[in-house]
Design a protein that fits this description.
There is one protein chain. By secondary structure, this protein is of the alpha+beta class. The chain is 17% helix and 39% strand. The strands form three sheets. A seven-stranded mixed sheet has the order 5-6-7-8-9-10-11.
């Protein structure tokens, strides 16, 4: 499969294979609408990389079937690297992408709770989204320093944070649970993450 990278004004987007250029308006809370235009740069091979400034980005396949293709990214700068896996379940190519990364960011579901919801759509997501334990096992195999759990189903609260951490116990590193816009400064090892 062929993936494209859209880059303009320091913002990078993934483009569908047929895209050649783009024009859009970026709306950022608290800022005016930002018109953005740019060109598409192709990434044609598994493991191919491209650069955005000083950051090298590697593209790897992930498993989010029935959605295909699906990809993850490994962003590296100096001796630090972050893997952004998105939706999906563990697979060999994800293990390869995360191996030795500083941080691994994974969307996760609480399968123990989702299984209790009598709705077929919710039951279906069990087949193609990582559970907390699966993400923890991937992080442990890869020996990453930080496992960052995100895009939760259902969303955790501060009251059930301990249960989420227990489910991540196959992982021996630092597990980060936080609402959107939580941050980790990997250089200083400072975590700013809270749950509502």
């Amino acid at each position: 499969e062929t993936y494209g990278r859209l880059s303009a004004q320091g913002v990078t987007f993934l483009a569908p294979p047929h895209a050649k250029s783009f024009k859009m308006t970026l709306t950022v809370p608290g800022l005016d609408h930002l018109p953005i235009t740019g060109k598409v740069v192709r990434v044609d091979k598994k493991g191919e990389t491209f650069n955005v400034g000083d950051v090298t980005i590697a593209v790897g396949a992930t498993d989010h079937r029935p959605v295909e293709p699906s990809i993850g990214f490994r962003l590296s700068a100096g001796d630090l690297s972050v893997v952004l896996a998105g939706d999906g379940v563990p697979c060999d190519s994800l293990d390869e992408l995360t191996r030795g990364a500083t941080a691994y960011v994974q969307t996760v579901i609480r399968d123990d709770i989702v299984k209790l919801i009598p709705n077929q759509r919710f039951q279906d997501i069990l087949d193609y989204h990582s559970t907390v334990a699966q993400a923890a096992e991937t992080a442990e195999r890869a020996q990453v320093e930080y496992l960052v759990l995100t895009h939760y189903v259902p969303p955790p609260s501060a009251a059930d944070e301990a249960a989420w951490r227990e489910l991540a116990s196959p992982y021996s590193g630092v597990t980060v649970l936080g609402d959107d816009l939580s941050s980790i400064d990997l250089a200083t090892k400072t975590v700013s993450a809270t749950l509502a």
